[in-house]
Amino acid sequence: MQFYDQNYCDTESFELKIQEIIRKMRPYSMVPDSGVKFLIRAVKYVIDKNIDGDFVECGVWHGGCSAAMKLTQLALNAKPRLLHMFDSYQGLPPVQPIDGPMANAWQANVNGPIYYDNCTASLESVQQNFQKLGILNDDVKFHQGWFEDTIPDFAKNNQNLKIAVLRLDGDWYTSTKVCIENLYPLVSDQGVIIIDDYYAWDGCALAIHEFLATYKLNHRIRSLPDFSSAYFIKQNWREE
Ligand SMILES: C[S@@+](CC[C@H](N)C(=O)[O-])C[C@H]1O[C@@H](n2cnc3c(N)ncnc32)[C@H](O)[C@@H]1O
Known about the structure:
single chain, alpha/beta, Rossmann fold, 7-stranded mixed sheet, 9 helices, globular, binds S-adenosylmethionine
């Protein structure tokens, strides 16, 4: 059974752990429970299968999903892994036409119910959240700045680094493109790449399609049952 099956590790004790992790991280994330559960299962999968590498989130907002990765590792008493949290810590950059009319309308509607101050959360507030959760320590690396500035340098300076779970949650075309282009080569064989905004915003989906086409990668994009996000495993399709 694969971790993306609904019943992966469907024991009562693991379900209790999932519920406890969600209870703790819930104030700090806009991702629905289905997406968080999937992320927790993905972390358990890479731990169970000894898939080497760190946890990385690009687009952390208040840090809830990043926290879920750390909390899962702790709940499973697994070997510590580094958690890299990339964000401007000053909200989203301006929408571009390629992000589509819905994205443009969303960013223009500053009084909308899901505007969330343009998804802004400061570095200090995210660190405080991690402090409250008891997970602020040297294993957690905060990378502040626009992805376009931080991600290529990070990849260039860490060519031997491995990523086990890569969570892309930067919403827009350029934000997604720079992250997948630079970080995909670091993802371990069998590692998991989660694309939070695949169904939400046109530009995100385009960035992923362009990337896979440019490098002739045959990964199959899979969806969560409620289509709240998508993902693929870094492996040759024929071996899946
Ligand atoms: C939708 S929020 C992330 C939600 C979060 N993962 C959660 O668990 O709720 C998008 C985040 O991406 C960040 N972001 C988007 N594009 C960026 C870029 N080009 N550089 C830096 N940060 C970016 C924003 O600052 C924001 O915090």
